[in-house]
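*** Fold description ***
***
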Amino acid sequence: QVQLVESGGGLVQAGGSLRVSCVHSGGTSGNYSMGWFRQAPGKEREFVAGISRFRGTKYYGDSVKGRFTISGDNAKNTLYLQMDSLKPEDTAVYYCAAAPNGQYEYWGQGTQVTVSS
């Protein structure tokens, strides 16, 4: 069982930056792929970024490439998402997810990110 707790969301102006964090526990650190998703009101959950467990390969959704950076600190059991050049359309609840068995099956409670224009 993997537990995930996000933090760091908030209100920021367009063009600004924000970093959200996800502390994970209950599994072997670094032994599973992890990622970030987001869901805006009235929209489906969208993949944002992920880190593969095998080679640490990072991959991003098209809408955030070049603006967002995913990283992890295994010593702190923490996953980060650095968000730069934020746009109002980035407003959403951001969720951390873990895929110990190849599929994202563990989810955090989410943290709200609001970008004002």
Notes: The two ends are 40 Å apart (CA to CA). The mean pLDDT is 93. The chain has no helices and eleven strands.
